[in-house]
Amino acid sequence: MTLRIAQLLIGLVLYGAGCAVMVRAGIGLDPWTVFAQGLSLQTGVGIGWITNIVGFLVLLLWIPLRQRPGVGTVANILLVGTSMQATLAVVPPVSGFVWELLVFVGGMVMVAIASGLYIGARFGPGPRDGLMTGLHARFGWPIWACRLSVEATVLIAGWLLGGTVGIGTVLFAAAIGPLVHLALPLFDRRSGRRVPHRDTDAEPVAA
Fold it and tell me: What are 143-193's pLDDT values in tens digits?
């Protein structure tokens, strides 16, 4: 249990740090971070704090969907945005396309490893993952349709609010699934032991 808790906490902190690194790259972000960045630009509140607030508001949507949060769900809301804000305070922006691309890919790999850690700890899904699986369970919509509709909505809203959409957004969409698929079997602690990964409906999204 102690190892699982440590894995969860490390994964969530690393997730926030990876998102912050991608922000500093400046070439595009995943849909939820585009949305958080847009809200941050409009309100003046730090993007990490906005991430925490959005996570809490998304959790409220679980109520009509009859979803139950786990310890990992609550920890996700508290830690990912906080880690993101702390990382942004010490990591400066980069310039030059090659460096921007390298930094973005590094942040994306961090997010993939972090996803394997916190999902593999098995303390419950993040609030955004639970929203999509909740829509699937409540209305019978395919997971891909739930994901596409939700992420397209927040991406467009974030872009209209001023969030960064670019080549990084496309790279993240194309690569994060395969990267997490590679990372998850390394950290999966089903029944207290690491086991080969089996495909599940719930794939991670950026906090």
Answer: 889 989 999 999 999 999 999 999 999 999 999 999 999 999 998 877 444
- Angstrom distance (rounded) from CA 114 to CA 70: 18
CA distances from 90 to 13, 83, 178 (A): 15, 11, 30
* Whole-number Å distance between alpha carbons of 77 and 153: 21
* Residue in 102, 86, 70, 82 with CA at minimum distance from that of residue 168: 102
Cα angle 107-93-167, degrees, rounded to a multiple of 5? 55
